[in-house]
Amino acid sequence: MTPLAEIGTLAQLVTRAAALWPDRTAWVFDEYDQHFTFAEVDRESSSIAAALAERGIGPGDRVAVMLRNVPAFPLIWLALAKIGAQLVPVNTNYQEFDGAHVLRHSGAKLVVAAPEFTALLGRIGLTEVITPAALSRGSADLGAALPRESAAFVPVPETPVNIQYTSGTTGAPKGCVLPNRYWTTLAVSLATDFPAVGEDDVILTAQPFHYIDPQWNVALGLAGGATLVVLDRFHPSTFWAKVREHGVTWFYCLGLMPALLLRQEPGETDRDHRVRAICASAVPPDLHAELEARWGVPWFEAFGMTETGGDIRMTPADHDETVGTGCIGRPSRDREVLIAGDDGKPVPRGETGQLLIRGIGLMLGYHDDPGATAKAFGNGWFHTGDLARMDTAGRVYYVGRTKDMIRRSGENISADEVERALLLHPAVRLAAVVAVPDELRGEEVKAYVVCDGDRPDPAGLSAFCAGKLAYFKVPRFWAFADALPMTPSERVAKGELRKVADPRAGSWDAKVQAWL
Fold it and tell me: What's the Cα-to-Cα distance from 347 to each of 67, 338, 344, 417, rounded to whole Å?
């Protein structure tokens, strides 16, 4: 049997897992109480692959999938990987405009969608739409069921398996072409290095399958032999109850999830679980120690992007001395990291620059966008658009997005830092900080705030910030909202906030102490 370190395709991951652990539970879909063994995952994905091939889907073809967290989604993904076709995940929140962009730009030959989405897709009308039921057939041996030309195709590590669209925070979403090697690099590193997910683990995902996290969780479960529990979505009030119910030992979360979990009422069962480690992206530094104390388990930062996979992560070797510092760890074994200045050259340790990444298993490029691809991979490094610094020990610290730096009267202000300060206010559930053009100071700071319960007085919020931050970082303009536009990765879509024609209109101006 091929050693795990030599696995290069998703198809190999599936067949290897089925051979090693045929009767072990691979997936548990909590909402439907559906269980799949590793052998069933292999057989069912082969059956769907044969059904797709009968419909004319073959190597290089693209199939869009618009489904919620149901077993058909990962089964179709693995089926497509087996026959060399490509998955195009479609956000289930999309409507005609954004849905049409993804379908048109990707060139999807077929769409598999839940019945609830077929009317919408019919209005878009770009390609054939079927439901998962149309792919149902008896379990099949893949080689025997495929047409001769499809059966002769053997996927390789460089074969694309996804066109995964970005959140589109700075324009129309771009399609990241992700090869087999992208998924196997990420999964194998998490199975063999920290957190070393293996046969004794139960892992969990609560994000939607059109986003990238549940997909790499599937690949990780196949690589390590762990059981993957899939929730319908993230519910803060019941999340830990599900963790306890399923005996989860490890999970990954991101965005607002840690802060929302902390806002739940503490209980006697908080430490009644089997979780040995939690990996997360964007753990609020000021809440890091509180998160660990509450549930009695270490939280480890991790950094990755749709374009690059898993790049930087915290391990136990650095954890204890970096809690609450914003440290995201060290590059994984398959990555090199460079902190560069505007000239592309390394900046001295401790100084802030743009985070550049290179290594194996990155995306092949942006679909049908050679200009964006060339710009992203300038000088052979992927330019993340994130600002970071590296200490003398080689640990990386996240600073913010290049577009999230506000230049006010010659001072550089990190929007992320201001947002983290605002989240310390007990009434603030979500905050987003953006720049407002200003003739005198170049830019001013504006904060959008979503609150729990009654909204605080903006003057009080301003004073609260003044007690946490240097005076020049305190927002001048304040706006309250019931909700903010979000990306599929659960980050605020600041591009939408920046489209406001007059960002001052309707805001409270701290300078004049009045609503405009």
Answer: 45, 9, 9, 22
434 contacts 497 by C-beta, under 8 angstroms:
yes
In a domain, 151, yes or no: no
253 contacts 239 by C-beta, under 8 angstroms: no
Q: What percent of the chain has pLDDT over 90?
A: 77
Lowest-pLDDT choice from 119-123, 229-233, 409-413:
409-413
d(CA 55, CA 336): 42
- The answer to the question of residue 486 being in a domain is yes
CB-CB contact of 13 with 219 (8 Å):
yes
Least trusted range by pLDDT, from 189-203, 336-350, 373-387, 491-505: 491-505
Q: Which of 215, 268, 279 is nearest to 77 (CA)?
A: 215
- Cβ proximity of 161 and 179 under 8 Å: yes
Check residue 470 and report its DSSP letter: -
Structure letter (DSSP) for residue 471: G
Task: Give the domain extent around 438.
Answer: 409-515
pTM score: 0.84
Mean pLDDT across the chain, nearest whole number? 92
Number of residues that make up the chain: 516
Query: What is the tally of structural domains in the chain?
Result: 1
pLDDT 10s digits, 424-466? 899 999 999 999 998 878 889 999 999 988 899 999 999 999 8
Q: Give the DSSP per-residue string, 204-215.
A: EE-S-TTSHHHH
Distance CA 86, CA 82 (A): 10
497: CATH: 3.30.300.30
Pair 436, 475: CB distance under 8 Å: no
Does residue 331 contact residue 338 with C-beta atoms inside 8 Å?
no
Q: Is residue 450 part of a domain?
A: yes
Q: How far apart are the first and last CA of the chain?
A: 69
- Give Cβ neighbours of residue 509 (< 8 Å, ≥ 6 apart): 476, 477, 515, 516
The CA-CA-CA angle for residues 328, 333, 334, to 5°, reads: 105
